[in-house]
Amino acid sequence: MTAAPAALLPSLLAGRAGGFRPSPVRDFWEVSMEPDVISLAGGNPDLSVLPLDALADVAARAVARDGLDVLQYGSGTGTAGTREAVARTMAAEGIHVDPAHVQVTAGSQMALDLVVKLLCDPGDVVLAEGPTYVGALGLFAGMQVDVVHVPMDADGIVPTGLEETLVRVRAEGRRVKALYTIPNFNNPSGVTLAAERRPEVVRICRAAGIAVIEDNPYGLLSFDGSSTPSLHALDPDNVIYLGSFSKVVAPGLRVGWAVAPEAVRRPLQLASEATTICPSVLSQALVEQYVLHHDWPSVLDRARKLYATRAAAVLGALAHSAPDGVTWSVPRGGFFTWVSLPEGIDVHRVLDAAIERRVVFVPGSAFHADGGGTRQLRLAYSLEQEDVLADGVRRIMGAIEDIAAT
Ligand code: PMP
């Protein structure tokens, strides 16, 4: 048999191949790596809080002592110890789950991928906050799932807006499968869904016969250590919960998880096994030892304080230097604040001017599936030092001022 000519290949690509798009966050990677550039673009956790010696020790012991196990294929659902560590982590936010109900995945991005595979056919609709997580939008687009945004305000999804959106989309003859939501310290808006709205959101979804996908990678990173009751706890039979160690331990480990209602649990396990056979056993060993046997809560506490100080630096710089008409969200945890520009100023012009001033951020349009977000931008404060963040904010505000004056 002769090899197919190179020109044939494009015609062989499946319909969904064209749906995957480059991540706008990664687009800024190169410029943000230039030495004189201040980046408020990427939402990377600051790993300087990690006790590297302890982790190195854990890794060395895992290989030296249990190498034949941690280098072998493992359980498709995840190791018992990791599932226990997940249950312990969720309990720290007041969410109580049976470790046997946990599906460990290679990051929560993979968990979302599996859930979308199981729930959605091409053309199905998923509702999501506007704005929402860019990585979820990329996944939905690749899976040919349409996203319709639900109105939100400073307290998160507006329940009446959710109901109206459901009615409108269904009147168009479209099939809605789920609400995808990041209720705590939303990426990108920094907004938290108010506790009093949560039962209503869950009730509306159940009554409408759609699932809730609760994506909660930042919930443990409230600045004051408090937590808001999870959607999963309010309706465990209709909420698929996604969690991650990426922001609270380390993203390079690629350990996340899903906790799904019973009907979804077995399909989720089989879909996961079809995708990766099993999650990395070595990474799970690190997570398990670190979470169950190290003074992890005190590291987490330091991380919370670090992010709180950085958020304060950004909010303080905004208060001092933002031109009239610029507004922003006030996060109570997580990595982001969401800035709105005055009428008539396009964020892409601001971005070009900001890059000239050697500072980058992600424009709001990256977080919308419907062309929205052209007057908004996301500022990530998780990685740079306070004075650098404040300098970055001042440069961006200077760029806005110049554009407003022209
Ligand atoms: N959901 C949200 C809201 C996120 O911000 C991220 C990471 N940026 C993820 C999911 C993916 O996280 P993980 O590293 O666990 O795949």
Automatic annotation (TrEMBL):
Subunit architecture: Homodimer.
Species: Nocardioides kongjuensis
One Gene Ontology biological process: alpha-amino acid metabolic process
Keyword vocabulary terms for this entry: Aminotransferase, DNA-binding, Pyridoxal phosphate, Transferase
Record-linked PANTHER family: AMINOTRANSFERASE (PTHR42790), KYNURENINE_ALPHA-AMINOADIPATE AMINOTRANSFERASE, MITOCHONDRIAL (PTHR42790:SF19)
Sequence similarity: Belongs to the class-I pyridoxal-phosphate-dependent aminotransferase family.
Protein name: DNA-binding transcriptional MocR family regulator
Reported cofactor(s): pyridoxal 5'-phosphate
Annotated Aminotransferase class I/classII large domain residues: 36-388
Gene Ontology molecular function terms on file: DNA binding; pyridoxal phosphate binding; transaminase activity
